[in-house]
Specification:
The chain has about 260 residues and is an alpha/beta fold. It folds into two domains: about 200 residues, 2-enoyl-CoA Hydratase, Chain A, domain 1 (Alpha-Beta Complex); about 45 residues, Lyase 2-enoyl-coa Hydratase, Chain  A, domain 2 (Orthogonal Bundle), CATH 1.10.12. The chain has eleven helices and ten strands. The protein has a six-stranded mixed β-sheet, sandwiched between helices. Strand 1 and strand 2 form a beta hairpin. It binds 4-(N,N-dimethylamino)cinnamoyl-COA. The site of 4-(N,N-dimethylamino)cinnamoyl-COA has 24 residues, from helix 2, helix 3 and strand 6.
Length: about 260
């Protein structure tokens, strides 16, 4: 599919998707959401891609939120459809077989912050800004913000950010666990690519199962989560990757994983 609002770049096993509406600071309208859903659905089936990087085109913004000019005249049923589209995208990313790194290169506000939170890891440029300004527009976050923020940071901090609509800089976001790394803006791309390459060099099935185990386990109590981990661990012993990884260690050579 040809995209009007996305730039998709493949470098070996790493695919970078840049949301490309810089004039509107990469705000999300239905067309952008539909294109992102299409791109991530294709990536889910793309066995060559082992890591995805999601970023915003331009130097100012990751995503400055859902498109306010589009949203302002929605009726409740249309608003519901819009929320379902956005929540569908964020769930798709959260459950994508491959890890997704958000390279947050500026504003990550509202739907942009929610999109970043659905990724596995958030790397922020020093100029990144995070926030959920929705209450200032008279709405609640609709793409999972009330839920994922409260799961990522403390319940009180999530409520503070949701109630006040305060915007945090990269360093503050790092301190509360909303960002996982902060790097100079000029190094954001290379930092994310290096991180992606490190992940690519490991066992693909194990990476995939780690993602599932963390995501599913956090929804369970610890006893059930540990039991789930034991099942996932045992599953690894049915893979070629486990044989290769352990044989390579014993034979003192670098593992060459097949992802099977
Ligand atoms: N939507 C549409 N256009 C936007 C935009 C947005 N979210 N953010 C920026 N733009 C546009 C601006 O209108 C401007 O367009 P022109 O006037 O040039 O045509 C252009 O991008 C450049 O923006 P500025 O001139 O404002 O640039 P500044 O550097 O001065 O300011 C800013 C940057 C990010 C601080 C400012 O643009 C800003 O405050 N933007 C809005 C940020 C925001 O409030 N984001 C949250 C949006 S609300 C739901 C579903 C989803 C949601 C809620 C409910 N349901 C269905 C229930 C999600 C809501 C949101 O995400």
């Amino acid at each position: 599919m040809e995209y009007n609002n996305l730039l998709v770049e493949k470098e070996g096993a790493v695919t970078t998707i840049a949301i490309n509406r810089p004039k509107a600071l990469n705000a999300l309208n239905t067309e952008v959401l539909a294109e992102l859903i299409d791109a991530f659905q294709a990536l889910a089936k793309d066995s060559e891609t082992r890591v995805v990087i999601l970023t915003g085109a331009g130097e100012k913004s990751f995503v400055a939120g859902a498109d306010i000019t589009y949203m302002k005249d929605l009726n409740p049923l249309e608003a519901r459809e819009f929320a379902i589209l956005g929540q569908g995208l964020t769930s798709l990313i959260e459950n994508l077989p491959q890890p997704v790194i958000a390279a947050v290169n500026g504003f990550a506000l509202g739907g942009g912050c929610e999109l970043a939170m659905s990724c596995d890891i958030r790397v922020a440029a020093e100029n990144a800004k995070f926030g959920q300004p929705e209450v200032g527009l008279g709405v609640v976050p609709g793409f999972g913000g009330t839920q994922r923020l409260a799961r990522l940071v403390s319940k009180g901090k999530a409520k503070e950010l949701l109630f006040t609509a305060d915007v945090l800089g990269a360093q503050e976001a790092l301190e509360i666990g909303l960002a996982d790394r902060v790097v100079p803006a000029a190094e954001l791309k290379s930092f994310c690519l290096n991180m992606a390459q490190k992940i690519v060099s490991k066992g693909p099935v194990a990476i995939r199962l780690c993602k599932v185990a963390v995501n599913k386990g956090l929804e369970m109590d610890l006893t059930n989560a540990l039991s789930y981990e034991a099942e996932v661990f045992s599953l690894c012993f049915a893979t070629e990757d486990q044989k290769e990884g352990m044989n390579a260690f014993v034979e003192k050579r670098k593992a060459d994983f097949s992802g099977k």
